[in-house]
Write a structure and sequence with these properties.
This protein has a single domain, classed as Alpha-Beta Plaits (2-Layer Sandwich), CATH 3.30.70. It is 36% helix and 35% strand. The protein is built from three helices and four strands; from the N terminus they run βαββααβ. The chain has helices at 15-35, 64-73, 75-78; strands at residues 2-9, 39-46, 52-60, 82-90. Strands 2-3-1-4 form a four-stranded antiparallel sheet, covered by helices on one side. The longest helix has 21 residues, at 15-35.
């Protein structure tokens, strides 16, 4: 099942510092999940000054329960970088020829 995750960072002071501290672990996990076909694409959301303020990810997990299990280990979720997390089921458009 495919999902889109739109996660907005906590606006509290210190969040960007927590984000940057967790970023190497976050990216390492995403690279592993990408190789497994679970992360399809993603990136950082940027504010008006082009500073990271959230994340968007397209992913594919066996179920919503499997996605929720992943989120419990996701550094940005675990370390409370993300405050508002929206998850929606989706279907990718068949764009490849």
């Amino acid at each position: 099942m495919q999902f889109v995750i739109i996660a907005r960072d906590d606006p509290a002071p210190g969040t960007l510092d927590r984000r940057m501290a967790a970023r190497p672990e976050h990216l390492e996990g995403l690279r592993r999940l990408y190789a497994e076909g679970k992360i399809l694409d993603g990136g950082a959301l940027l504010d008006d000054r082009e500073r990271m303020c959230g994340s968007v990810m397209l992913c594919e997990f066996e179920s919503r329960a499997a996605l929720d299990a992943y989120l419990e280990t996701e550094p940005y979720f675990r370390d409370k970088v993300w405050k508002d997390v929206e998850i929606r089921a989706m279907r990718r458009a068949p764009l490849k020829a």
